[in-house]
Design brief:
Pfam families: DUF2383 (PF09537). This is DUF2383 domain-containing protein. The chain has about 190 residues and is mainly alpha-helical. The chain has one domain: Ferritin. Helices cover about 80% and strands about 0% of the residues.
């Protein structure tokens, strides 16, 4: 039986081959992890647009309409851009399914809040925006996130942060007994 030589070309080739497989597996796992996180963020972004549309349609109050319209336009542009970039990276976004289920739950939560008054609507919007911010943060934490995905998610997070600041200011204003409509979003 021939002596085993750990430095033989055959062993080196096998080691290189196994190393390539391991590296590819790590990259693939990293990609599928951030891809799933990005798809969940896109779903939550779609839910926020549904919520904005519903509040704007049902509230019949200029303050809510103005806030929702302002952020819905920006959020819609960000969502379209993000969806396109995700598709370029191979995302297989569901056409229906989970987005519709989440949007329906959000619709029911907002509907209940609209029946309960201004503070309840602001709290529900705040809850939704906080959840969107957490989804954006979770996506940004992934290693191996492509630069274009990172940039659009960073913009989504910045938009959500500004929305949260506006909502908190409106809630504080309304909680002090002032009409939420007397709070001006745009400085």
């Amino acid at each position: 039986m021939p002596a085993r030589n750990p430095g033989s070309p055959r062993r080196r080739n096998t080691a290189l081959f196994l190393n390539r497989i391991l590296t590819a597996h790590r990259l693939n796992c990293s990609m599928t992890t951030w891809m799933r996180s990005g798809e969940r963020l896109l779903e939550t972004l779609a839910d926020s647009l549904t919520g904005f549309d519903h509040v704007a349609e049902q509230a019949h109050r200029f303050d809510f309409y103005s806030y929702c319209e302002h952020y819905a336009v920006q959020r819609g542009q960000l969502a379209r851009t993000f969806k396109g970039v995700m598709k370029q990276h191979g995302s297989k976004l569901p056409i229906h399914g989970t987005v519709l289920g989440s949007a329906h739950r959000l619709y029911l939560d907002i509907r209940g809040a609209l029946d309960s008054g201004v503070v309840a609507v602001l709290e529900e919007l705040l809850r939704g925006e906080t959840f969107l911010a957490s989804r954006a943060d979770a996506t940004l934490e992934h290693e191996g996130l492509p630069d274009d995905i990172y940039e659009i998610v960073r913009l989504i997070r910045a938009n959500t942060s500004q929305s949260l600041l506006d909502l908190k200011a409106m809630l504080s204003h309304a909680s002090k007994g002032f009409a939420a409509g007397s709070f001006r979003l745009y400085r």
